[in-house]
Amino acid sequence: MKAQRAQNYLFFGAPVGMFFTIDARLEIGSWLDYGMFIQNIMIGARAHGLHTCPQAAFADYHRIIRAHLGIPQDHTVICGLSLGYEDKAAVVNRLRTDRAPVSEFARFVGDES
Ligand SMILES: Cc1cc2nc3c(=O)[nH]c(=O)nc-3n(C[C@H](O)[C@H](O)[C@H](O)COP(=O)(O)O)c2cc1C
Fold first, then answer.
1. Which domains does the chain have, with CATH numbers?
2. E strands, 14-73, where?
3. Whole-model pTM?
4. Closest Cα to atom 22, ligand 1: which residue?
5. For a tag on the chain, would you pick the N or C end, based on fewer CB atoms within 10 A?
6. Residues with beta carbon inside 6 Å of ligand 1?
């Protein structure tokens, strides 16, 4: 588990690693916007045949990242993201997680007619 976790900090061998920061004055609504922004990058990457892995693991080391990349103190490090091509031969990439049915997390209210 530790070895796999450590791969985070090598961007899992991806050719491109990204860091995302947000102006520390912005509040929860902006963090929601930011999540959508990152997901758009992930979806856009798929359209170009690329794969991504968003990485909250970087947030634990925000002080080190800040110092190395010269991120200003008034910005919060949100996460990292690996961008590259999926290694289809890697066992770890064969894991397919289940998807909960919509009825498990959504409630529909209203006139059914
Ligand atoms: C906000 C967010 C943070 C994540 N952080 C990490 C991370 O630090 N390290 C990691 O290996 N995967 C991370 N993941 C990726 C997930 O573990 C998972 O591999 C990914 O969401 C794809 O899973 P799925 O195909 O089962 O949906 C993160 C995903 C999200 C949405």
1. 17-94 (3.40.109.10)
2. 16-23, 51-55
3. 0.89
4. 53
5. C
6. 8, 53-57, 79, 97
